Amino acid sequence: MNVFEQYESEVRSYCRNYPTVFEYAKDDILTDENGRRYIDFFCGAGAVNYGHNNDYIKEKLIRYLQEDKILHSLDMYATAKRSFIEYFEEAILAPRGLDYKLQFVGPTGTNAVEAALKLARKYTGRSGIFALMGAFHGMTMGSLSLTTDADSRTGAGVALHDVTHIPAPYMFPALDTIEYIETILCDDHSGIAKPAAIVIETVQADGGVYPLDIKWLQRLRALCDKYEILLVVDDVQVGCGRTGTFFSFERAGIVPDIVTLSKSIGGYGLPFAMVMLKPQLDVWAPGEHTGTFRGNQLAFVSAKAGLEYMLEHDIEAETLRKGAIVDQYLHREILPLDERLQVRGIGLMWGIDFARIPGASKEMITACFERGLVIERAGRGNDVLKIMPPLIISDDNLQKGLEIVKEALQAVLAAHPAQ
Questions:
Q1: What is residue 338's three-state secondary structure?
Q2: Which class would CATH give 3-53+314-414?
Q3: How far is the C-alpha of 316 from the C-alpha of 309, rounded, in Å?
């Protein structure tokens, strides 16, 4: 038994899919302690969009550390924080015509979601929240109440209250879910009160890679305006350029009331999370929502550097270009292999749905890993193989990774012939 199995909790998860000990990481390649290299289609669950040990960001971090600049400061003023705020406002928000105040919270996505929920309830005076079925928003109690994965919810050990889950628009094509929500709001016998907020991911990632329709998103924005409900967009995983625009909601031309960011906003895989809120919503009392590690100064440095790198290398356009490569490959090389497969995606997040081939998605994880590719699965029954490489992945490694997926798929399908 190795040291991990002997001393680490049974709660560990990803390591069970990738039975090796990793030691190095660079750009789009992971290397284990035996020197074996793996193409990365996992991207730290979306935390390293700009690649592992990005040279540009690393140089900024090393310089900051060498100069003995402050690392921990709670929410006190510091030069690194000021520099990030100024750059984020000037280079990201202003060009998009967005007016938000920034709240720095504890360093994970669920911290940002928890703060968003508290703020929405405080501002509106309402306790209820609407969320979509298929959603994943985090593993702490408030975020978990939004999340619909049964195993995750069971882990709470207590009842999860004050959230009404609405069918996601892809679940029942004949059901107009916007009309359904409006009916709930207007029917004095629905038994459901008007919520403080509706919380969504514009692309359900862990839900199985479902990009929500642009017109649906626009209608939801209009509905929230009509009934004075806050629209909260969780951009923790699908923000920071993953969909081809920095914010995932840009493609719909909507402006959420609150946005949560984490994962790749840290630039280098460093823990960092923040909430963007419209100025009129900033009704917090000083210290009303705190956290010892809010305002991670080193992450402010890497976050700013990550944004600089993104803009200087036109990462948004590159994501769309590479996404088209994945799209074409999946439709040309993968779908023809078996009529039971489905694919869907946007930008550099794509899913191959194995729901009609039970057990195949888990076998795909193993088959890909054995061939030198790290990839994960998501969705109902974990039946969706999720393709999510770093946005800076080389064309060559992107192609090689896709070819590994195809090779693994051919081997797996041989054991699951169509009836």
A1: coil
A2: alpha beta
A3: 11
Q: Is the separation of the CB atoms in 242 and 215 below 8 Å?
A: no
- d(CA 36, CA 245) in angstroms, rounded, equals 34
Tell me how far the alpha carbon of residue 130 is from its chain's centroid. Answer: 19
Residues (pLDDT < 50) of the chain are 1
pLDDT in the model for residue 396: 98
Q: How far apart are CA 388 and CA 279, in angstroms?
A: 34
For 38-57, the DSSP string reads EEESSHHHHT-TT-BT-HHH
**pLDDT at residue 419, rounded to an integer:** 79
Whole-angstrom Cα distance, residue 339 to residue 341? 5
3-class DSSP state of 326: helix
* pTM, full prediction: 0.97
State how far the Cα of 287 lies from the Cα of 310, in Å rounded to an integer.
33
What is the distance between the alpha carbons of residues 163 and 126, in angstroms, rounded to a whole number?
12
Residue 71 CB-half CA count within 13 A? 10
Residue with tokens 């692309």: 203
Letter string b/e over residues 156-186, b meaning 16 or more CB atoms within 10 A of that residue's CB? eeeeeeebbbbebbbeeeeeebbeebeebbe
CA 2 to chain centroid, in Å, comes to 32
Which architecture does CATH list for 57-312?
Answer: 3-Layer(aba) Sandwich (3.40)
Query: CB-based contacts of 343: which residues, under 8 Å, 6+ apart?
Result: 330, 331, 334, 335, 350, 351, 352, 353
Q: What is the pLDDT of residue 68?
A: 97
Q: Residues of CATH 3.40.640.10 domain(s) within the chain?
A: 57-312
Distance between CA atoms of residues 17 and 366, nearest Å? 7
The per-residue pLDDT for 295 is 79
Count, residues in the chain: 419
198 contacts: CB under 8 Å, gap ≥ 6:
129, 130, 131, 166, 181, 220, 224, 229, 230, 231, 232
Under 8 Å CB-to-CB from 336, ≥6 apart: which residues?
none
Sign of the C-alpha dihedral computed for residues 55, 56, 58 and 64 taken in this order:
positive
Pinpoint the residues of the chain covered by CATH 3.90.1150.10: 3-53+314-414
Quote the CA–CA distance of 324 and 71 in Å, as a whole number.
Answer: 40
